[in-house]
Amino acid sequence: MQFGIFTVGDVTPDPTTGRTPTERERIKAMVAIALKAEEVGLDVFATGEHHNPPFVPSSPTTMLGYIAARTERLVLSTSTTLITTNDPVKIAEDYAMLQHLADGRVDLMMGRGNTGPVYPWFGKDIRDGINLAVENYALLRRLWREDVVDWEGKFRTPLQGFTSTPRPLDDVPPFVWHGSIRSPEIAEQAAYYGDGFFHNNIFWPADHTRRMVEFYRKRYAHYGHGTPEQAIVGLGGQVFMRKNSQDAVREFRPYFDNAPVYGHGPSLEDFTEQTPLTVGSPQQVIERTLSFREYAGDYQRQLFLMDHAGLPLKTVLEQLDMLGEEVVPVLRKEFAVGRPADVPEAPTHRSLLAAARKETVA
C-alpha cells in the first residue's frame, strides 16, 4: 500500500499573521514539501492542476520534472490532470516525457476539476464535461498504446497517421487513476478500462464514499478485470497533528475557520465528525485512517492533504515528520494485517512492465 501527500497549491493568507506568501514562495514550498515527503519515507507526492488564482500549479509536469531531478524513490503523480480541457495529444507527450526523465516514477489522476470557468478559458463547454472526459481519455489511451493513430471525434480536430513522441517508457504507459468526488460516470470509466479509482473523500461522509467505491468495485468485476476486491482504489484524507490533541485543535482552528473552501461554514467539530478530517494526536490519525478500510475495503493508495489554508511551511514540514515517523509505519503494519493475498499492491512502472513482459511471453 502506498502512502503520500497531495497539494492543491493554494496561495492563502496565514490567518494568524495576515501574511500572504508570494507565488514564488508557494511554488518553492511545494517543492520543499515533496523533498520532505521522500526524506520521511512517504511513497507519493501528487500535485493538482489549476489555472486560476489563488492557485499556482498550472504546469504539473514542470514541477514534477524538477522534483524528479531531486528525488530518487518518490512516485510523482497528479491529484488532478484536467482531461476535459487539456488536449489529449499534449497530455500523452508531456507525461511520456516526464516518465523518461523520472525513470518511470510517474502516474496520473484524471479529473474534471472543480472550477467551472476553466472550460471557456480553454474553448470548451462545461455542459460537455462528462463527454469530454470520456472521449479525450479514449484518445489518450490509444496515443500511448498505438504507434500510429487515425482518429476522429467530436471535440478536437481529426488525426491521420499521428505518432505521439516520445513513446511511453518501455512501451508501458503511466498508470492512470480516475478521480471523482460525486460522479458515478467517472467510476464507471475507471472500471471499464481496469484503471484505478481515487475517491477524494475529504469533504464527504463515509456512506457516500462507500457507495462510490462499491459501485466502482462491482463494475470493475463486471468488465472482467478481476474480483471486486482486486479493484485498485485510492482515498484522500486531511490531518493536522500535535502530540497533544487539544494543542492540535487550538492551533488548527483559525486555519480551518478561514480556509478558502470550507471556512466560515460548519464548525471544526462538525466537519471532523462528518468527514475524514482528523485534528488531534498521531494515534487519533492512525485510528481514524485505519477505519477507512471498514467502508472502502483493502485499498492501494492513501494520500493526505496537509499544506493548505495558509499553514506556514515550517508547520507543514513538522506535520510531515510526524506523519513519516509516527503514523505511516503503524499504518503500513496494521493495513497489512488480514490483507488477502490476492489483493494487488499499488501499480508501479516496475510491476506494469513485469506484467507486460509476462503477457508477451505467454
How would you characterize the overall build of this protein?
The mean pLDDT is 94. The chain is 45% helix and 14% strand. The protein is globular. By secondary structure, the chain is of the alpha/beta class. Helix 1 (23-39) packs parallel to helix 11 (313-336), helix 6 packs parallel to helix 7 (206-222) and helix 10 (282-296) packs across helix 11. It has 12 helices and 13 strands. The chain has a 9-stranded parallel beta sheet, with helices on one face. The longest helix is centred in the C-terminal third of the chain and has 24 residues, at 313-336. Strand 4, helix 3 and strand 5 (107-111) form a beta-alpha-beta unit.
What's the SSE blueprint?
Layout: E1 2-7, H1 23-39, E2 44-47, H2 60-70, E3 75-78, E4 81-82, H3 88-101, E5 107-111, H4 118-121, H5 129-145, E6 149-151, E7 159-162, E8 175-180, H6 184-193, E9 196-199, H7 206-222, E10 233-235, E11 239-241, H8 245-257, H9 268-274, E12 278-280, H10 282-296, E13 301-305, H11 313-336, H12 349-361
Parallel strand pairs: 1-2, 1-13, 2-3, 4-5, 5-8, 8-9, 9-10, 10-13, 11-12
Antiparallel strand pairs: 6-7
Which key terms come to mind for this protein?
13 strands; two-stranded antiparallel sheet; globular; 9-stranded parallel sheet; alpha/beta; Bact_Lucif_Oxidored; about 45% helix; Luciferase-like_dom
